[in-house]
Amino acid sequence: MRRLYLQIWLAFLGILVVFAALLAGVWWTLPDDRDRPPFAETASRLVAEALGPPGEPPDRVRDRLARLTGAFPGRVTVLGADGAVLAHRGEPLPPPPHAGGPRLPGGMHHVPGAGPVFLLRLDDGRTILVGPPHPPRRGRFLVALGLLVLTTAVGAYFVVRRITRRVETLRTGVEALGGGDLSARVAVEGHDEIARLAASFNDAAGRIEQLVSSNRTLLANVSHELRSPLSRIRMALELLDTGARPELHARLTRDITELDALIGELLLSGRVEAQGARREDRIELLALSAEEAATWGAGVSGCETFVPGDERLLRRLLRNLLENAVRHGGGTPVEVEVGTVRDRPGLRVMDRGPGVAAPERERIFEAFYRPQGMPESGHGAGLGLALVRSIARAHGGDVACLPREGGGSLFEVWFDAGAGGAASTSR
């Protein structure tokens, strides 16, 4: 079956067929009130003639009953007008409930211990009871009903599970793509609508990956090409006479330096996103943090912690976090703490500045985003924290901005410990 809607339709059709069969069985066993009077009258006359008049001796009644029932496999019981058993074939059937009270009409009745019993009233006061040869066994009925329910449940489960399993696989692929894995694809199984949806997802993911890759390549190429004219401008500026306008010369030098830093971060960001991080070296975070913190006058504490990673990228991550803390910390001390972060090796960079508003704590990691109300400082390209997140994710981790107890900002960074785990020792 190649069409999903046909699978679902046939499943519901099967359920309806089972329901109809059960309903037909119940309906078949119930008496029809419209046919009861004429049927009962005709049957009463025929049976009364076959059994003879009410005063017949019991032996003769039993003989007549035996000839009348013949090869009938069920049980038949003849009751007198007073309820006494006159004759029977097989074991006597118990009378229906309330037989001694109001007269029950002829027809099908349920008798405890005997099951469905057909009751026939004769005009002369006698009563004929006809029932199955053996009392019904409820256990068999319950077993049959249980098998029916189990078969329907198992059959429906495999059909529904087959459908939902592929939907779950598709959802996993969508989540992976949304999480930044542009190479995420899903397996195409079958030929129905879900299979076509999976194929469409793969095509769309491929186009997105190609588009993003083209944009990254273009950005990297443009950034690289900007280096040459920027170097020429810097050289020309150094050859100019700075005596007339020294402040202009200093401002141009600062702008060129900032532009050069922007180009460098663009190139590095593109390389990290395209190639990831080389994680063959075993880097000791505490020593690395101490070296970088010394440049910014920050304090360092913690324990010896190792992570597999790229030393140059980890240095850039630390440098960007320290630069951000010093720039926005309002002159307060900056601290670095190395150790376990969220049960993984990592570090924390903390300051006592004004902090970051809750709605901005995630957006500050977007490229070129500046928080609301933050004045242009003239420093930084808006890529520092975005690059921090790229480097952290390239090392199997991530970064988060949190409020610091007592005021200020707290940046947590955690990394993948690697196959061998991360060693941490107090010191």
Describe the structure.
By secondary structure, the chain is of the alpha+beta class. Helices cover 50% and strands 16% of the residues. The protein is built from nine helices and 13 strands. The protein has helices spanning 4-29, 36-51, 58-69, 138-178, 193-239, 246-275, 285-296, 311-328, 384-394, and strands at residues 75-79, 85-89, 107-111, 115-121, 127-131, 281-284, 299-302, 304-309, 335-341, 344-350, 398-403, 409-414, 424-425. The strands form three sheets. A five-stranded antiparallel sheet has the order 2-1-5-4-3. It has a five-stranded mixed sheet with strand order 7-9-10-12-11. 22% of the residues are buried.
The unreliable regions are 33-37, 419-423
Straight-line N-to-C gap: 67 Å
As a percent range, the share of strand residues is 15-25%
Radius of gyration over C-alpha positions, nearest whole angstrom: 45 Å
The string of secondary-structure elements, in order, is HHHEEEEEHHHEHEEHEEHEEE
Strand arrangement, major sheet: 2-1-5-4-3
Please bin the fraction of helical residues. 40-55%
Report the strand count.
13
- What structural category arises from helix and sheet content? alpha+beta
